[in-house]
Design brief:
- By secondary structure, the protein is of the alpha+beta class.
- The protein has 26 helices and 38 strands.
- Strands 29, 30, 31, 32, 33, 34, 35, 36, 37 and 38 form a ten-stranded mixed β-sheet that branches. Strands 2-3-6-4-7-9-8 form a seven-stranded mixed β-sheet, sandwiched between helices.
- Strand 29, helix 21 (about 685-700) and strand 30 (about 705) form a beta-alpha-beta unit.
- Helix 7 (about 165-180) packs across helix 13 (about 375-395), helix 11 packs across helix 13 (about 375-395) and helix 19 (about 585-600) crosses helix 20 (about 625-645).
- The two termini are about 40 Å apart.
Length: about 900
């Protein structure tokens, strides 16, 4: 994406650019005034930083960037440049870490600020903090010493959403103030009692996109009109990162390099307070915790007490300033993947701050008042500073609460469920990926070195055990417990709101169990596992495809500077095989298929099961024939299988024991996948981004993205698959576009739809799917009897089905269908919304997957009882033939947030296997 040039001229809300001569005169006057300043004090960089003496040896933002941070929406490159300048100017009190590189190659940094003594002993301090974080074996005397000596660590993270602009602007002033202020008792207290970590811009790619769009739309003066193009962001807006992920939902999943780097950078410090500074609508005020109900059930009473204390301190500050604010009401901490809830689950006090956003330099609010960029910068600066000061004031209390949290987590894990076991099953590479994802979150995971028996069941060597008697047990339970209970009073209130047809107040999803969503068997063990085991290392679980510059955080041996090349792997060989090589289908096999097909290596896939040499092989099994791939292809297969962890079985004979033969017409040749992904409005950006990421980065498959309004100009004959992410494409595709797409399908193309694009495909004027999106069951005609039943009388006769607020439902699959390959016959799927599709009739298509019967439907999360009967046995994955082609349709988004590995494999089935069957 284009990066804006650094700006050196500020744009004030109500001033115009001046002629060059006037600018030169102003510059000379400014230099003269600067020279007249007292030699022992620097000029404050913003009007609200008054009454403090500043060290002139510490550069101001103006000196480095050429503008005040309240005058310009500083681009991310300039933000990092200034933070580096501060670290260079004050090395004795700072420690700068570049913890990641964004997809577009922008650095992400964390600046630690503390006293000279502590920063000189940074390794010793971090070791002490780590010792408190794992209190097993920690004696009372050593604990007391550490609590007395160690600093509180306050992490302040800014602008995880790229179009939330004022927090990043405030980070510059905060870092300057902490490093340059002299004789300020509050700054001195912070530095004496704590270390402050400043992450100045968490989403540089999104911010760069916003700044570019804002500058493109701006005139000679900033326009505060709410409808101004300055703040009317074109698709996809600046909120998300390059791959259009909401990074504030990615903390534990770590699918993105920004998230992976950030979590490890924070874990190196074991912070006690973490603040994630955001923005909200411009007509609002300011929010800080205590957070809204429902809270996460694993938050402790002591944490809640401390949240209240910090909230009251912030409230006192805002009250003195006369600034309105609110607490609770909206932002909850139930989902553990936020920047506030993830650290809370590990024992810190994680907080979300929300400032009303001007989405530009100035915004006219509904009451006629003007909200400026400078207003937001000041409020974020003061609230962050007040939080750091509060941390310093109660340093010992914070450290003691943190170690108590971690110790009690260990103690709770010594009762009830003692561990979770993740069975390798038919997809050992995926189980390993899940184990490493947990380890990356500072969770202890063990890989068994030998088989063992528990409750009369024998588990194979290579199983993964996650013990619960560990300091991170509450995060383990958040991620692996079958159900995370939501506050019962809150749930009852939602029932009442539903009866009145009011929208619910559930802020995000209600279920996220990783084992369910990854289709990895998880077994709760009621006794500790004592078998010989090896700890799983916390290695980054990044993409397999190095197609963009962002490789920070990946092991050095996995980096490849050549764009578009797969990461190298150690040499691997395969034994000779007379007939060829069989690869049982799973996520690893799909990655191998994507790589080899792209390289032009011939592969076949079994459409039906077979048995060879006494071993059963299921539909989807790949066959690479020795005669077709040659020595070069065998070497590529060996390397790909080693890289992705795929099993390869040599076949010496094609004479099968049962089922289809290896030379059968049911052993279909797979075409090279050439994928077109429809992009831009009206596609939902999060769906489009996750789908593209799954194709390009998770499975290494090149993709051509075509804007929806340009599809009519694309030569569809060049592609084998067209993917429509979730979205209602009626506004983008006219009748001619639909007819053209229909002819392409009839000529052999494969159309893949999901969620709202599946609903679009069922429309009568589209006609790609012979099903319908159901309405809620019609209510019976009201009785004439008086008095009336008021609720019955005011209920609409027809309406959309009951919405599902992000729950995991069980889907059952027709195992004979190749599109169900790798499903084990059932899996959990994330369901969110009010889409229910009637199953296809036998004469129109095939229902590859349907929701489970009523008594087995809900695996985790909230699904209202009235909604369940209508969902049970309805279509989830459908295939309908159209001429020589086919439409493959998902009722939900199979790539949701990039971490629903189970349904993501089904999506890859549609892309890789679908065109052949």
């Amino acid at each position: 994406m284009q990066t804006p040039e650094p700006r050196t001229r500020s744009m004030h809300p109500h001033t115009s650019p001046r002629p060059t001569s006037l600018l030169a005169t102003a510059l000379l006057l400014g230099l003269a005034l600067l020279a007249a300043q007292p030699p022992l004090a620097a000029q404050a960089p913003a009007t609200f930083l008054t009454g403090t003496n500043y060290d002139p040896a510490v550069p101001t933002p103006q000196e480095v960037l050429g503008h005040a941070p309240t005058d310009v929406i500083t681009p991310p490159e300039e933000i990092v440049r200034y933070i580096r300048a501060l670290a260079d100017a004050v090395p004795a009190r700072t420690h700068l870490v570049e913890y990641a590189e964004s997809w577009e190659g922008r650095p992400l940094v964390l600046l630690a600020i503390g006293s000279e003594d502590r920063m000189a002993r940074i390794a010793e301090v971090q070791q002490g903090l780590a010792r408190l974080a794992d209190p097993r074996g920690l004696g009372a005397e050593e604990e007391a010493r550490l609590v007395a000596e160690l600093p509180a660590v306050t992490a302040l993270a800014h602008s995880i959403h790229g179009n939330e602009i004022t927090p990043a602007g405030s980070s510059l002033l905060l870092a300057y103030h902490l490093l340059a202020a002299r004789g300020d008792p509050e700054v001195d207290r912070i530095l004496a009692e704590s270390i402050v970590l400043i992450d100045p811009v968490q989403n540089p790619d999104g911010r760069a996109r916003f700044v570019t769009q804002n500058l493109l739309a701006r005139g000679p003066v900033a326009d505060p009109d709410p409808a101004s193009a300055e703040r009317d962001e074109p698709w996809p807006g600046g909120r998300s990162n390059h791959y259009l992920f909401d990074l504030n939902r990615d903390w534990y999943a770590g699918t993105q390099p920004e998230s992976r780097g950030r979590t490890r950078a924070l874990l190196a410090w074991n912070p006690h307070v973490v603040v994630d500074l955001h923005e909200m609508g411009g007509n609002s005020t300011y929010y800080f915790p205590p957070s809204a109900v429902p809270g996460n059930p694993f938050t402790t009473d002591r944490q809640r007490e401390l949240f209240d204390h910090f909230g009251r301190e912030n409230a006192a500050l805002f009250d003195r300033q006369g600034w309105p604010y609110f607490i609770r009401e909206i932002f909850d901490s139930f989902y553990p993947g936020y920047g506030a809830s993830w650290p809370t689950a590990l024992g810190a006090l994680g907080k979300t701050f929300e400032q009303a956003s001007p989405r530009g330099l100035a915004f006219e609010r509904y009451d006629g008042t003007l909200l400026t960029y400078a207003d937001g910068v000041e409020r974020n600066f003061r609230s962050a500073f007040r939080t750091a000061l509060t941390s310093a004031e109660i340093r010992a209390e914070l450290l003691q609460a943190f170690v108590d949290f971690r110790r009690s987590a260990v103690r709770e894990g010594e009762e009830g469920t003692r561990a979770y076991l993740l069975a390798p099953g038919r997809d050992p590479a995926l189980a390993l990926r899940l184990a490493r994802t947990l380890a990356w979150n500072d969770i202890e995971v063990l890989r068994t070195d030998e088989p063992f028996t528990h409750d009369d069941r024998t588990f194979e060597a290579g199983s993964f055990v996650v013990p619960l008697d560990q300091p991170g047990a509450r995060l383990v339970r958040n991620l692996l417990d079958p159900e995370i209970p939501m506050d019962s009073a809150f749930v009852e209130l939602q029932r009442e709101r539903r009866a009145q047809r009011l929208s619910d107040q559930i802020y995000d999803v209600t279920a996220w169990n990783l084992a369910y969503l990854w289709n990895v068997e998880s077994v709760a063990l009621d006794a500790p596992v004592t078998v010989a085991s090896t700890p799983v290392e916390a290695v980054p679980i990044g993409p397999i495809f190095a197609g963009l510059p962002g490789t920070a955080g990946r092991p050095e041996e996995e980096r490849d500077p050549r764009p578009g090349r797969l990461a190298p792997t150690p040499p691997a060989t395969l034994p000779d095989a007379t007939v060829g090589y069989l690869i049982p289908w799973n996520t690893a096999a799909a990655a191998v298929a994507a790589e080899l097909l792209t390289e032009g290596i011939a592969l076949h896939a079994a459409g039906q099961p077979f048995v060879l040499d006494g071993r059963a092989f299921e539909p989807g099994t790949l066959l690479a024939r020795s005669a077709e791939i040659g020595e070069g292809g065998r070497a590529l297969l060996a390397a790909a299988a080693a890289r992705h962890g795929a099993e390869v079985v040599p076949a010496e004979s094609g004479f099968v024991d049962d089922g289809i033969s290896l030379g059968s017409n049911q052993m279909r040749a797979l075409p090279e996948p050439r994928v077109l992904l429809v992009w831009d409005s009206p596609a939902q950006s999060l769906s489009a981004g996750a789908t593209r990421w799954v194709l390009e980065q998770r499975y290494g498959l090149p993709v051509t993205v075509v804007r929806a309004n340009s599809l009519g100009r694309a030569d569809l004959s060049r592609f084998t698959v067209v993917v429509l992410p979730s979205g209602n494409f009626a506004s983008a595709f006219g009748g001619g576009d639909v007819d053209r797409l229909r002819r392409w399908i009839q000529d052999g193309g494969t159309l893949v739809t999901m969620a709202e694009s599946t609903r679009w495909a069922t429309r009568s004027d589209v006609g790609f799917l012979a099903t319908e999106a159901e309405a809620r069951a019609e209510r019976p005609t009201p009785q004439v009897a008086q008095p009336i039943d008021l609720l019955e009388a005011i209920t609409p006769p027809t309406e959309a089905p009951e919405p599902v607020s992000g729950a995991i439902l069980r889907v059952e699959f027709d195992a004979s269908q190749v599109l169900a390959a790798g499903s084990d016959g059932s899996m959990g799927a994330m369901v969110r919304g009010s889409r229910i599709f009637t199953p296809l009739t036998l004469d129109r298509g095939t229902n590859i997957g349907v929701y489970a019967p009523l008594d087995e439907l809900v695996m985790s999360g909230i699904v209202w009882e009235e909604a369940r009967p209508q969902l049970a046995r309805k279509a989830f994955l459908m295939r309908q033939g159209l001429g020589r082609g086919r439409v493959i349709a998902f009722a939900e988004d199979p790539t949701f947030r990039g971490y629903v590995e189970g349904t993501q494999l089904l999506f890859m089935n549609a892309v890789l296997l679908g065109p052949a069957f």
